[in-house]
Amino acid sequence: MIPSLILLSLLSLSVARPLDSIIPRQTACAAGVHIIAARGSEEDPGEGKCQSVSDLIKAAVPNSDDVAVVFPATLLEYESSESTGVANMAGQIQNYTQACPNTKIMLIGFSQGGQIVGDVLGGGSFGSPPSAPLASQFTKNIIAALQFGDPAHVSGKPYNKGNGTHGGIFARDNTAALDGYSSILESWCDDGDPVCAEGIHLSVHSNEIPTNQNAASHGARGQVEGDEDVNMNYGCVGDETSINE
Description:
Shape: globular
Low-confidence stretches: 11-23, 228-245
Strand content: 5-15%
Mean pLDDT: 86
Distance between the termini: 43 Å
Number of helices: 8
Order of helices and strands: HEHEHEHHEEHEHH
Helix content: 25-40%
Number of strands: 6
Strand order of the largest sheet: 2-1-3-4-6-5
Radius of gyration: 16 Å
């Protein structure tokens, strides 16, 4: 259960939002990269803060498209909401991989959505038993995965980015499966974030994407293009370099 102070603080930032629509249907195969994004808790349906990252990638990689994961993104029923997001993102990846077997896929998630990305690749955080990691036959086309402010963040991992040095409020117990994606994964977490780094400043959490999106997007673009000089080890906190440079 989310610590009560964090829950109440996050709820104070939320606004009323309409219910999600049906799961998006595949219409065409992207020639660039297909982005699947999961929003943060209590954000309006759609990609939420992740949209700005998707837009940066699409601007740099022609003929790319993006789609949001459909899930409640609620705080009060967090475990159910997050688990629904895991199932739906996994389903979207499976469906897209079967329909477009040659298209590259990128995953993006903020806050609850960041945990969803990690649980799809590394196995579920909740449930008895928790969901299994998505099978490799469906993850083979995933060339980059970006997490921002992940509640399941674990310190000391090679794929960690940002300056956060503590674990998240739902720090993952077993990272074995997720560690297998170290070459394509970036988990951005900054010091002071109460969700991913045991901090006390909600503003740090809210700004995980604005602070880090340029560096994260630049590295992800390198994965899409197979550029060894522009890879997932690029960038530092607050890097303002344009990904088109």
